[in-house]
Amino acid sequence: MLDDWAAGFGIDWARDLEGDFAEAEDMLRVQRLDPERMGRNGQLAMEGAAALGVSGGPIARNAGACVQCSSCPLGCPIDAKRGMHVSYLPRAVAAGARLRAGVEVRRVLVEGGRAVGVECRVAGDGNRPASTFTVRARHAVVVAAGAFGTPQLLSRSGLGNDAVGANLHIHPACWVGARYPEEVRGWEGVMQSYYVDGWEAQGILLEATFTPLAFGGAWLVGSGAEHQRAMLDYPHMGSIGVQLTDRSAGRVRGAGDGSLRISYGLDRADAARVVFGIARAAEVHFAAGAAEVYPNVAGVKVLRPDDVASFEAARIKPADLRLEGFHPMGTARIAADPRQGACAPDGSLHGTAGLYVADASLFPTALGVNPMMTIIAFAKQVGRRVAGAAERPLSAVDRP
After folding, report:
1. Model pTM?
2. Was domain 33-62+170-325 assigned CATH 3.40.50?
3. N or C: which end of the chain has fewer CB within 10 A?
4. What is the band of 216 on the pLDDT scale with cuts at 50, 70, 90?
5. How far is residue 251's CA from residue 148's CA, in Å, rounded to a whole number?
């Protein structure tokens, strides 16, 4: 993937991110899960993958002090998970950064073709009215509002080319549940525990992922009394998530009222790959001993071991799939050629000096894995280039 980005989009440094990944893993205390402590849901995925002879492994997580208390979906109560509030933000403050909560950046300020600051708004409440203020930049403005917020802010500021907001990828995903004869008690263990990457070439990543009933109950079979029986049998349920590296693309646009408009359509080729992934997840479940599988597809309640081939051969439309999107990216993508992307290889916005992007918006295509570590590595690369530019005196062209 990184080699493709370097060759196809002119990101020379994309091949040299190993040091950034290693530093981030150390900072976030990334450790591979102990199979003995991952929980039975992950162990079943591991056993099923091994029985099929496909590659996989325990997931490496940014939770070095994890005690497997099973509360991941609700937030880590002991801050074992190294979120930004216990890792990079304290580090930034120690280096002199100032944080402002409850502030919305409304517009990037540009003078003479160069970004010079931002206009901010603080919402009012019962005790004080709304107010605005500006922050002037000494060297550069860096936008890191995510694949939705970044194109919205740039568009609202009248900045960027036609690539701003385009190329939206979202990692379409679904849950494939299964009922096992044994008690799985999937809530005992970590939420995401084991990955299967044996079908990476098809753009499919499987992850053993278990969620509380209030969330996971949505993929159980039936309605009414039938669904109630399935919920009562929840201790016997296992779950595998299917995540697609999507080639389909959407768009983010700002509306006249200031709100955000997001459009995305899964094409038939990607839908077929999701069906392929569901079938593979079902095979992993059955290889681990599941009695039946719930594929999360309209009109297909249950699969049993002999049903996988006919399920995969059926004509399943994109609208038949019950999907979610987890990792928006790509809406201000890097490309040396401004006809291909919104940002230059150093992260700067084509056409505006002193304005950089440093988030998942920069990715030229969808990743094959969860994007957190790549976002951090890209941000570090952009940060170096911002620092390097700040050390150089402004040319007559750059000066506002």
Report:
1. 0.91
2. no
3. C
4. confident
5. 9
Among 182-191, 330-339, 358-367, 389-398, whose mean pLDDT is lowest? 389-398
Domain residue ranges in the chain:
1-31+102-167+329-400, 33-62+170-325, 64-99
DSSP 257-283: TS-EEEE----HHHHHHHHHHHHHHHH
Percent helix / strand / coil, the chain, rounded to 5: 35, 25, 45
Which residues are registered as beta bridge partners of 294?
Answer: 177
Q: What percent of the chain has pLDDT over 70?
A: 97
> Which ranges in the chain belong to alpha helices (H)?
2-9, 18-27, 40-52, 88-94, 146-156, 213-216, 224-232, 268-287, 308-313, 372-391
Question: CATH assignment of 1-31+102-167+329-400?
Answer: 3.50.50.60
Catalytic residue positions, numbered: 327
C-beta of residue 368 within 8 angstroms of C-beta of residue 200: yes
- Burial (Cβ within 10 Å: 0-12, 13-18, ≥19) of residue 179: buried
Please spell the DSSP secondary structure of 30-77, one letter per residue.
-EEPPTTTSBHHHHHHHHHHHHHT--EEEPEES-TT----S-GGG--T
What is the predicted pLDDT for the residue at 400?
Answer: 39
